[in-house]
């Protein structure tokens, strides 16, 4: 068979209806004794905004159909497969013909996502067919020692993709240097930032790349046990990981004398996390694996010295592990060609918010924020004005529109007050209130604080109360100062990253959008017209014709007026629901 | 792991060498640099949650918690710079913003003088009236006066009001009661007076302010002279308040308490007239003006100059000055005003015979500032009220004499500046009221006509009036503009209350003292006080439904019919019972830990503002469900120390955190009640709580009040922990651990922590003699006489003496001396060790010091439950397991669930004896024994080996009830492990087994090494003393054999007695055969604690004459013929020898409350028996030491012994009534 039909079955695809599409195709296949194509599943193809996606691969190349319904799917079979006529109007991207979204893949550089949306993640052979486990075999064939591998990783310049950006090679070195009978490596798959789904997509799309990375890591630091700490909210990722783990065990990549290396014993245990954000923090994660309440402890000692069960432990996140096989397979120097001087390789981002093309992208380090937003993301939804982008989730900060030329690179991003983070990118437009954004993220961290440290436990609560007060129109003159002072103190006096970074969204929005805070506090106005208690609806006397629609629809009877006469909103009774605004056909209701 | 190295660090500029294992806090502590911390306890691993201990490390932007940050080479640390201080303050501000709790009760907070009401009510509850007065007089020297006439803001604030309508605790009644008792007692409270400073202070005015200031300053060692313009002291108290409220004789008595400490009062001296600035400045170093505010004001309406219109103040004063009541017989009197002066005027008018007395007030009764009780009483006395009425004109007759008043009706309008609704006249409502006298009680003014004299002569400033005509003084220090002059009371504030004048006197006296001592004059620093009212006004929910409703005991008053005189109307409480009932109405709103609260101390130090981060806060009910431990989550700061100590030290894990983030709370596991968890009730959680969130659940009123402390040795088990008793006048309110030999971390178990309660129980206080079924008190002499006669009446060996393991060494020594030297018999023993003492003696020959247990690698518990008794040992075992990864194995014949869950391995067997014998058999028969140790350090091995190997290994294994494999595994593991300890309690193992355990340790050579060997646990604090003091027919003093010449010769020499041989038959047989006619039982309760009660009863009953000497009426005492009251060891001091054979001496902790102490009683009898007695306890001690000489054998060898004695102990609780009485 020279034709293949691949359905994108990541969580994004399934959510958009990919199951029905796949079922329709499968029914079609089952009904006929023989079909001229092979039907396959894959995971997230990356163009989440066009899901469900169906890719047709024929002799000429690849054609990606977007927004596919079961009916369209059958039509594709009929027209494209059976009659060799691509239905161009539904093709979003192709390497053969011109298609509207072709740029989407052209700008990306797929390194860790190379297999995502391509292979069937539940098939180890498909992974192997695309170079999977070659790196592991390279170790055997080239006789690489543990030290060689660590040097190679150092040389690659790979930095932790979990957000910290610490040199992975150095981290391995520490764990390697600590001698112990038992050592652990952990894959941190507790992705919890609002708006982030990079790790999930990777685990769903290419679980073996992570497992292979961990095996190489285990070999390098001398670990005999591995743990993947994955949040229980990722059932598909967990399912596919479990399948991949048993496949790897069966084939001898996990277990004893792995890949024929005498004495190299290593296996991985999958631990489901209960969804506490703080468990993404190394020491809290370890406590959670040990069955304790997920609370961080003071470092040092670092896990490399005393980690899980007080043994030397190395923790990297999903994306970091997935980079490892590529580095070993292609060589560090090849890898280091990508990226900037101090930030090598690529970075996966999850684009969400007020962006046209939301989805998962992998870009080389060094690309600008503007390129990501305008070229990859297609610009702002509804062509509104771009205001800023929140990078790094609740721990990160905001990069305002005027710094859109900032390049994606650990050091450049840090300079803006944001952090690279794990790759969540929330795009905000002119209708987004920055005080409210800060409130949203703080509400998240306040709820996710484990409750151990005073500053994080009570301080975030107090900051949140101040932000709520401001967005409710009760801000006080010194609230900005209090937020800054308290925020700074929370950063300086918290045990773990959660507390140390919790005030960042507030501090960075104050830094770039102080005028919005001031407008809320002093003028009791929300410039983005987003904070409901601060809105004022009035009737434009020139436009009102007295149709009474507004008055009839007002749930609080706050609108007076007789038919054919100008209406009037009693502000004291107005609950700012905006119904009048949306009901008025004459644009006579104004929002101040 | 990193190697430990030495590092150089700089901390606040000090260069110091430290270990790389030290934390910054360790190093700072060593240098004496104080770093505050709330979540750190040296007993626990560093945790770092409070972030109060942060410091700055050079080169690090973030602050670091010093409790968990280790020092590193070349580290430069600043512990107290501005950034650090601000961060600490914010941390505390944040903690306090969620600390819904009151440090102090509202009564104390509201009292202008800050009298500790809750404290003195607690003392009154304990009938410590003078102590209560002492507490009050720290800030208020006039309790008897205030107990009568204070306006009682405390009672207005009292939270009882929230429960029982208008029924605050009778605070003033209680104070009055205590003050009257104290005033009338022979040894009433007098303060300590500091040595003379040589400074002199003049006080102008002998009113409440002047008297109080004098009292405070005289105490500081200054000579205080008061100048009073009137012929008597008291000021307003005498010349303003009528006698029916405050009798002059009472006033005089209380004034005398002040002159008694050396204060002089010079009468008829008026400043500006016959007392000048010069007099003051030349003769005195400083002056305090307490001149009052006594110029009455009139009505301020037309015609008020008419005859018979007076100011109320002048009216009242006049009567006192002339000594004659006004004659209002048949007259109509109008009193204008609604304050307390108006009340005094109207009630006095009635007493002066007025036909009718009206009170005219322009608002309603609700707005009247007068004390409601006064209004109530005045109505009873016939006063009529014309409310919402105001005079507008005074009408006089042609002679200028008052004829009538023109009054106008009023209505209430908008609230004015005072918050009260402003009265507005109703136009046209005027009417005339015919009256004979009008008393204007609407205000007073301060008279400062002496000011010119001062200003003319003063060289250090000018006295200024303020805009109301009062003396201008600094509001914080009360220093006037004349440097050496201070002022207090109404003269500064304008007319106010007595208690405000007293409060001001304290401030002025403090400032004046600072001035005299050349110190900077600083206001009295106010400690931080957490207040529920900083969070909400709705506090009712904390009270309603939480306490039983209880109406207030009103005090008796004079019948209204009998009030046409100036006799005191309020009669005071007439019984202690009522007083006690009323004290029990106090809800104790203030925190019991207010004096020991780290959170409060730091909050004061860092100037915390509880409202800085006002917002949401957690509010929860207090959990009283555990009988000993109270959990108040409102006060919790989530340091988790309780949780961690319960895990790391106790191992019970009874507490944990639930929920997350801001909502996190500490709760017993599974959110159950603490009693339903694995809680061992040790109270370590209480000991570690830095606030008052976990406290002791007590049955008495804790106060809290400041206590005295006395260091003693615990009176319960043989571990011998050191502790401190906190007591008020010998009433023990608390026990806390101190760092002792057995408890170096200061930990205590539940008995050490809570067992003090028994000290407050009522005890036997006099000798008692049985008459039929009754006991009657008799004198000591009579009791002695009976005893001596009974001894003389029988043959020496028909006497039997018993001494318990709870007696001190001195007492035990005296009991055996009583037997041997007094009654000339060797029949002396203890029921505790009855018939086992010969073999039990070796149980703790080589006990591992308790503190070394924590460092062991392998610990074996032989049926030992350390969760209920000997808990301190259990803690050490747990610490070894948690910190040292020690393996803890429990080998047990029974289920001990709480202990089992704390062990790594639990092995159930059928017989300890056969198990250990099988182990020993295996080791010896396989040549796995430590030959060098056996050769050098032991004797009797070959004989033991022969006897043992004659047994059948298979039979031993079968009877042990466990597999041979396990026995071999156990034997090998134990044999090969270093630092391994076998732990057993005497009450669990029979003698033969205990001996086999010792044999096991000898075979493997485990004795005499650090953290290695045997721990034998005894039930009583001085069970070891029974052996050492020779309380046994087999041993003499110093534990040598009874016929050993080292004892025998000395005994013959000292006591003139024959050399005794070991008894035949033994004591148990003597009891069984009923051969003991006289029984003398000291500190033991064989009947109450016997496993076979009937047998024990029979033994006692078969004697003809039984003397029991004990603290409480035990079951054995109830069967006695004569009961002697024992003194508590803490009342005499003494020494206990713990199970590790350390002798621990302690001093007198609480006062003796019986005529003769225990040791004195024995001496008294010995004297009557013509034996040389000891006149002091130290003499007893010397005598004991004289027996000890040469008793230590240097060539000591451990003995292998084989015993077949499988008898179990006959008594529980170490044969003592104490545990039963303690009931924990």
Chain-wise SSE layout:
The complex is a heterodimer of chains A (592) and B (1224).
Chain A: E1 4-8, H1 11-16, H2 18-31, E2 38-42, E3 54-58, E4 61-65, H3 70-81, E5 91-94, H4 102-106, H5 124-129, H6 134-142, H7 146-156, H8 168-177, E6 184-189, H9 198-205, H10 207-221, E7 225-231, H11 235-251, E8 267-273, H12 282-289, E9 313-317, H13 318-330, H14 332-336, E10 346-353, E11 359-364, H15 369-376, E12 386-391, E13 397-400, H16 410-415, E14 424-429, H17 434-448, H18 454-471, H19 479-492, H20 497-501, H21 504-522, E15 537-539, H22 549-553, E16 559-560, E17 568-569, H23 579-583, E18 589-591
Parallel strand pairs in A: 1-2, 6-7, 6-9, 7-8, 10-14
Antiparallel strand pairs in A: 1-3, 3-4, 4-5, 10-11, 12-13, 12-14, 15-18, 16-17
Helix pairs in contact in A: 2-3, 6-13, 7-8, 7-10, 9-11, 10-13, 17-18, 17-21, 18-19, 19-21
Chain B: E1 6-11, E2 14-19, H1 24-31, E3 54-57, E4 64-65, E5 75-78, H2 82-96, H3 106-110, H4 117-125, H5 129-137, H6 143-149, H7 153-157, H8 160-163, H9 171-184, E6 200-204, H10 208-219, E7 223-227, H11 236-239, H12 248-259, E8 264-266, H13 277-283, E9 286-289, E10 295-296, E11 309-311, H14 312-322, E12 332-336, H15 340-351, E13 356-360, H16 372-380, E14 384-386, E15 389-396, E16 402-415, E17 421-425, E18 431-434, E19 437-440, E20 444-445, H17 451-457, E21 485-487, H18 490-493, H19 498-516, E22 556-557, E23 570-572, H20 576-583, H21 598-605, E24 629-631, H22 641-650, E25 655-658, E26 665-668, H23 684-688, E27 694-696, E28 708-713, E29 722-728, E30 731-737, H24 750-754, E31 768-771, E32 774-777, H25 780-793, E33 799-803, H26 809-822, E34 828-829, H27 837-840, E35 858-862, H28 871-884, E36 887-892, H29 897-900, E37 905-908, H30 912-925, H31 931-937, E38 938-939, H32 941-949, H33 953-960, H34 964-976, E39 980-985, H35 991-1003, E40 1013-1017, H36 1023-1028, H37 1045-1055, H38 1067-1073, E41 1078-1082, H39 1086-1089, ...
Parallel strand pairs in B: 1-5, 6-7, 6-9, 7-8, 9-21, 11-19, 12-13, 12-19, 13-14, 33-34, 33-41, 35-36, 35-39, 36-37, 38-46, 39-40, 41-42, 42-43
Antiparallel strand pairs in B: 1-2, 3-4, 3-5, 10-20, 15-16, 16-17, 16-18, 22-23, 24-27, 25-26, 28-29, 29-30, 31-32, 31-43, 44-45
Helix pairs in contact in B: 4-5, 4-9, 5-9, 6-9, 10-19, 14-15, 15-16, 25-43, 26-43, 30-33, 30-34, 30-35
